[in-house]
């Protein structure tokens, strides 16, 4: 998914057809079936991003560059993904950028893994732990499709049993029992490093926070984020009727060498 | 603000004193006055991130690595900053990472400029337009303090009059009249490139969306984001009483070569 | 829908069947088909509220007293209803209670009409304007089913053309062009009386507020309300994934005899 | 606080002075000090609601009818009040209107007590339990000032020890340990009656829901409500920057004679 100006075989492309989007790999003999007709993917090769092609019934389809929201929302998955609104703030909280060393547990479908890897290029690394075979397979495939496979070290290991790495910048968790990883994160993180964990229930958050308080963590905070879409048109602007009311609570903390109190 | 493991003279450090945070440059002869006593900043030099020092009355102060939220919320400023929750999702929407070419208008206090520059390292660039002298000065200083000055080209120019760059990946706007930049963004952006604009009022959003519809943009969407903090402690967990109820509406669109309809 | 302790023929009853609710009028020969089997409504007669009966396949169905949320959400309708969360705050803003004289435009399906009438008993009155025949018919039927028909005067008239009543306590509007009613409301309201209007779009709100400022209204405020449901169970508590993100904006103002400024 | 058209001695009046509001009892010799000058309250007597008077420096002050939001937000208090947005939806959930028999625990400052009493007139009653002497005194005074003292029976008793009344329509709780009242509420409520409880923490909500499940309650639901204010002016409309992010979680359930399952 490194994005050149012209589409080549094997590229990951976003086709925008009458408000619907299809994130698809361009393969020569493949036909894409949409609600506005069929598209021969071979025809897309050689076109520029931003160009338009027509379906077999003459409807327009736009060739677009997938962004990271497209990637996250469209990865092949067998589990709940982490939402873009949550990944976004995690990047800033974890100071995640080129060069960052990030430990992730678990890989899940690789949606967050891919975004983290995209950001830490070219000299950073994501160490991603996952115990479930089938998820690891999907995550590897998704990360590869984003073109960032070189920046991820997948580990078929249980992160609640320990973290191999030392002196890492960030530990990001999206697992059922994040509190079991707190002491391992305390060992793995640099001084001042960032602990970030996502959980859907308050009980998971309470257990994690309680464990953070027992170890070398300070500045613990918990929050949730929301996104609300609008329909905008002069004289008709209004928020959409439905919204996502909950994804995950986010727990943040900083590792220090000496405990508070 | 490149963060080594040991604090050196000139480093930007976050001092955490009894739940209050001070983002401060370490200068040998400087004394920091806090609510829990004075800190001789000279003593911080040579300490590790994660270490603790004591104030003159014996209270603990933790030496922390500032993250990008610390940076954004604490930049010296003369204008409203863009909030971390909004910058986060913008990164994903704009696919902003190492190598991205981003046009920003205006620089403001440089809070968002700094984060963008941090992300596009080492081979990307941020072209940041600002007409107000005093803001440009502050933005330059803030970006330099984050250690990413090399990745920003500041331009003392009015972005509503035109964009010099071509074939850029993203145009991000945080100005009073973003609709005046839409046609320039259409020229400057690559095919499939991303237009992102922040505005506090619905009227600004309506005008911008209306202009996007007249030019080569599709997949236009508008949203707002929220963040809600919790106090978490077993048996006492509850959201905080007050929250920020509004920052800015975000407008997103993709540039294509041929207009819809 | 006056609720006695024992169910009688003609009563409006809420049947609660395995988390689904049916708001139904008890008629001797009627059979209710539910996802957990059929219920012979004749069997419900003579039962107490709070009693349980069984469906033809032996599943439990509870006989409940409908509350006003059940009424509002289940009225037969041909239009969008006003949501309980919005009606609730309107009652307090309009000081609507026994004895209040309320003008409503338009009746819609009568959901709000019914609640208003329920509250103004026994000595208040709701004057409800509606121009569309088919809505008037539905509203009358719904209000009658709530047992509060005596407290409503339906008027087949266009409220944007004028309000017949004088010296009323509150004017509540849920129509497409509320700004056209502002000057009529100024005439109809008592000194210090309350103007309340619901609109889905910002444009409607702006026009209404602008008109209020030109007439004898002060203390103008605009807000929106939200409700977010939780799943609660020890160790599993979390907000529901989906929520309603928008219903209507509410405009409030007070009528005075002399304009501000 | 029965509101006539002309202000009399002893009336509770809302004075609106340049966007600030003063809820005040009209006493002949009293002077009100405001930020726009002094007002001799004697001058207000005989004026109509909706009239304007001038302060000693010639600024306008409007004489308004307090609504129930004014009452709730301005009661003399020694504790957190229940917010109007929450009371509003409680009225609909509890089908609270003329004739309702409501048990309330505890009285607190009487803000909710007053609204409940206002609604159940003329033939309903509110039985309000409170153990703390000083609160009972304040609650009685506040309810009397709203003119609804005749509809409240205050009880200096601990509601967690038992409820004297039987066959009531609603039990509303705003106390620290609502779960201790669940079995008493099951005894006191009519079949199909409504249990409603407000608590700031998730832990209180979990305990209450868990106890409801053990007793004769079904259709248990939990939610929170929000209100977001806007500044509206053509071309400048936007939500206010700050909002209240949390007041209380609301628990609702219905009493039946036979337990589920």
Topology:
The structure is a homotetramer of 261-residue chains.
Chain A: E1 12-17, E2 20-25, E3 31-34, E4 37-40, E5 52-54, E6 60-64, H1 68-74, H2 84-93, E7 101-105, H3 111-120, E8 125-129, H4 133-145, E9 152-155, E10 168-173, H5 182-188, E11 189-199, H6 202-214, E12 217-231, E13 238-239, E14 242-244, E15 249-255
Helix pairs in contact in A: 1-3, 3-4
Question: What report would you give on this structure?
Answer:
Four copies of one chain form a homotetramer. By secondary structure, the first copy, chain A, is of the alpha/beta class. Chain A folds into two domains: 53 residues, Vcp-like ATPase, Chain A, domain 2 (Roll), CATH 3.10.330; 187 residues, Rossmann fold (3-Layer(aba) Sandwich), CATH 3.40.50.150. The first copy, chain A, is 23% helix and 33% strand. Chain A has six helices and 15 strands. Chain A has an eight-stranded mixed sheet with strand order 9-8-7-10-11-15-12-13, with helices on both faces. A four-stranded antiparallel sheet of chain A has the order 2-1-6-5, with helices on one face. A two-stranded antiparallel ribbon of chain A has the order 3-4. In chain A, strand 10, helix 5 and strand 11 form a beta-alpha-beta unit. Chain A is globular and about 65 Å long. The N and C termini of chain A lie far apart (49 Å). The model of chain A has no long low-confidence stretch (mean pLDDT 95). Chains A and B meet through strand 6, helix 1, helix 2, helix 3 and strand 11 of A and strand 6, helix 1, helix 2, helix 3 and strand 11 of B. Strand 14 of chain B pairs antiparallel with strand 14 of chain D, so a sheet runs across the interface.
